[in-house]
TrEMBL record:
Residues 1-51 are annotated as: Disordered. Pfam families: Peripla_BP_6. It comes from Streptomyces cinereoruber. Keywords: Signal. PANTHER family: LEUCINE-SPECIFIC-BINDING PROTEIN (PTHR30483), PERIPLASMIC BINDING PROTEIN OF ABC TRANSPORTER FOR NATURAL AMINO ACIDS (PTHR30483:SF6). This is Amino acid ABC transporter substrate-binding protein. Residues 24-36 have a biased composition (Pro residues).
Length: 400
């Protein structure tokens, strides 16, 4: 989940449109039309505005952004269909971050000037960190949907809350999974990023007391073939992809799968690249059997089942955990707005008092050790892969 983009990804195309079919043309790059608030004709008064940060163009992970926006937009429409916020419609102002921290910070400035009550969303951790810092500085509540970096802010703040579990929580579970599978000599193909460096450190700290080792391989300096040579030389039993998608993740997987010396090497992707259909389309059977983290319960309740079906209809495919994170984000904010008021300070003050039924369970925020923002402790975590016998089917390997 929340991978950093590859520095070699082609330049971004023109900004995409929001998931809503009832939109007007985007006025400028980075600014997207707001989904039309369904049910607004039954609500009175000026809209309550929410800003949404979403990666919709490269080098951002646009497929994740599309799922996140689908969840955000669906929840906005449901809020408006049930009377809005005390009779006022909820309006979503969407900005494409394209996985650029500076662009995200500038978007927070713009959205604050437009009078948003709060900012929501974002998928990439380094981008969310920039947005969180700017939101806290401006006194704008920011509910982070999907980014997991533990240090989302440098200092503790009451302005920021997060739904996604911290990276340390999920990645420690992933390290335990590797140990249980008998994988002790771990290689990581990595690129420069605070997120990847944090993941590598977490894995090393968890594996070392149990005799595990972590070897770092620079994916920018090594070709896929040279990386395979290094894996064979070090006798690695697992390779974890701490790199951007599709480049260089896809070429690395193809090279390792095609190297007879590495037939027994487990490929893993803790950040969640195999979750999305784009992965299966690019790799087919080679993309199966690669465990990754996702944040869904073992079984959905009635709410999760209903929202999942509606998201599937919107997306034309199975919704990822990111789409559910989007729906939960707006639902939490709507609860805060209805119970505590629509001024920014009141929303920020509401975090520790909220208890909201989300698609993946009851959502409450608290202070987790080492985390400087209000945190849902914890969203459900699974380790999943694509079934080698049926790559379109996901298998749950471990829960935590």
């Amino acid at each position: 989940m929340n991978t950093s983009p590859s520095p070699n990804t082609p330049p971004p195309p023109s900004p995409g449109r929001s998931a809503s079919p009832n939109t007007s043309p985007s006025p400028s790059p980075g600014r997207l039309p707001s989904p039309s608030p369904s049910g607004a004709e039954r609500a009175d008064g000026p809209p309550v505005r929410l800003g949404a940060l979403v990666p919709l163009t490269r080098p951002g992970w646009a497929e994740a952004g599309r799922h996140l926006l689908a969840g955000l937009d669906l929840a906005v429409r449901e809020v408006n269909d049930t009377g809005g916020i005390d009779g006022r419609p909820l309006e979503l102002l969407v900005r494409d971050t394209a996985a650029d921290p500076e662009r995200a910070a500038a978007a927070v400035d713009e959205l604050a000037a437009l009078g948003v009550t709060a900012v929501a969303g974002e998928y990439h951790s380094v981008v969310a960190r920039a947005a969180a810092a700017r939101a806290a500085a401006l006194g704008v509540p920011f509910l982070c949907s999907s980014a997991v970096l533990d240090a989302l802010t440098e200092e503790p703040t009451e302005w920021v809350a997060r739904l996604a579990p911290a990276q340390s929580h999920g990645w420690r579970l992933y390290a335990d999974f590797l140990l249980a599978a008998g994988r002790h000599r771990i290689a990581v193909a990595t690129q420069p990023s605070v997120y990847w460096a944090s993941g590598t450190r977490l894995l090393r700290d968890r594996l070392a007391p149990h005799g595990g080792t972590v070897i770092e391989l620079d994916a920018n300096a090594l070709t896929p073939g040279a990386l395979c040579d290094a894996l064979a030389e070090h006798g690695a039993t697992a390779l974890l992809l701490l790199v951007g998608h599709p480049e260089p993740a896809v070429p690395i997987v193809k090279a390792v799968r095609g190297d007879r010396r590495l037939a027994d090497v487990l490929i893993g992707a803790p950040a969640g690249q195999p979750e999305f259909a784009e992965w299966a389309g690019a790799l087919g059977g080679d993309g199966a059997g690669i465990p990754f983290l996702r944040y869904l319960p073992e079984r959905f309740g009635p709410l999760g089942e209903r929202v999942g079906q509606e998201l599937r209809e919107r997306l034309g495919e199975a919704p990822s955990f990111v789409a559910f994170e989007g729906w939960d984000t707006v639902t939490v904010l709507a609860s805060a707005l209805r119970s505590h008021g629509t001024d920014r300070a009141s929303v920020a003050a509401s975090w520790p008092h909220l208890e909201v039924e989300g698609t993946r369970g009851p959502i409450r925020f608290s202070r987790a050790p080492g985390i400087g923002v209000r945190q849902w402790t914890w969203a459900p975590v699974q380790i999943v892969d694509r079934d080698p016998a049926e790559p379109d089917r996901l298998r749950v390997l471990r829960t935590g």
